[in-house]
Write a structure and sequence with these properties.
325 residues; 14 helices; two-stranded antiparallel sheet; alpha/beta; 8-stranded parallel beta sheet; 10 strands
């Protein structure tokens, strides 16, 4: 495992998000989830990303179980605000944020959180800036080590980085969502802001395993949010209509040549960008953990291949992405 910088932390360049094991991705098995977390740690993963709304704290509690006795070796990032009204300024006031944080710390069984992220707040909340004063205070008290913002758009990311103590941005970034490369990453590098790449496989599209006829479970967000019915459409299939995403993924079958699988290749492509501190695929099984970890060791992309993928995105993908990004 290789490690990259996020604030004063050295985190594994391939880590894991826990939305899938928390809920809203169909059936899960807690014992399998804990085994997956432990398997990742055994192979050098020292960072996990979660949120208070992933199963109403369930994902946080699974991390607590898996990391027990290793709390000083495993870094955890969590998020807040979506348990409340994200448009109400009260959600971001000190009393509210303290309430969210204390609940998260209790779920994790920790006294300090390594990274606390505002969970995709509206642009006006970022511009207002009051919440960052609250986070500064919590940081000074030792409740959080670093803080950052999970964003939906490049504009939100750029605005967040105007606050000097923001140390991380979590962004949707994959072969189907390349906009941050030129507009966000250079400034993040200049300001030494770490990038966490989420939705790296475009909700499974970049595994190449789906056909247009695939039916997702009722409680899977790829069913109930396929067109942005519940939250930002970009969080599901990177904003692409499912059928179009399947067709586009078939055109990318070539990337797996010499790299074992399309999923490993897609994760490797993200790791080719040095602005990225860590890529955080999700998982529900130990096999998915193992498969994702294999991306670290597959062959790198050539400059010609990287250019080919950028051209593909600009010519065939970008126009089909829905929602602001």
């Amino acid at each position: 495992m290789n490690y990259r910088t996020l604030g004063d932390l050295k985190i594994s360049e391939l880590s894991f998000g826990t939305w899938a094991i928390g809920g809203a991705w169909g059936k899960t098995n807690d014992e399998e989830a804990v085994r997956g977390l432990k398997q990742a740690m055994e192979q050098g993963v020292n960072f996990f990303d979660t949120a208070d709304v992933y199963g109403d704290g369930h994902a946080e509690r699974l991390i607590r179980e898996a990391t027990k006795g290793q709390e000083d070796q495993i870094y955890v990032a969590s998020k807040f605000c979506r348990a409340g009204d994200i448009h109400d300024p009260v959600t971001y006031q000190e009393e509210s944020v303290r309430h969210y944080l204390e609940k998260t710390l209790k779920n994790l069984g920790r006294e300090q959180l390594d990274l606390y992220q505002i969970h995709c707040p509206p642009l006006e909340i970022i511009k207002d800036g009051s919440v960052f004063e609250v986070l500064d205070k919590l940081q000074q008290e030792g409740k959080i080590r670093h803080y950052g913002v999970s964003v939906e758009t490049v504009e939100e990311g750029l605005e967040a980085m105007t606050y000097k103590n923001v140390r991380a941005l979590q962004v949707i970034f994959n072969i189907f969502r390349q906009k941050p490369v030129h507009e966000l990453f250079p400034i993040a590098k200049e300001k030494e802001v770490g990038i966490l790449a989420r939705v790296p496989l475009a909700s499974g599209l970049l595994t190449g395993k789906f056909k247009e006829s695939h039916q997702f479970e009722e409680d899977d967000h790829r069913n109930f949010n396929a067109d942005g019915q519940q939250f930002n459409v970009g969080e599901t299939f990177a904003g692409l209509p499912f059928a179009k995403g399947v067709a586009l993924s078939q055109e990318l079958d070539w990337i797996k040549e010499g790299r074992e699988s399309m999923a490993k290749a897609a994760l490797k492509w993200i790791l080719e960008h040095d602005a990225v501190s860590s890529v955080i695929p999700g998982f529900k099984t130990t096999k998915q953990v193992e498969d994702s970890l294999g991306a670290v060791d597959v062959p790198a992309f050539t400059g010609e291949e990287m250019q080919r993928l950028e051209t593909f995105y600009q010519a065939h993908v970008n126009e089909h992405i829905r929602g602001p990004y």
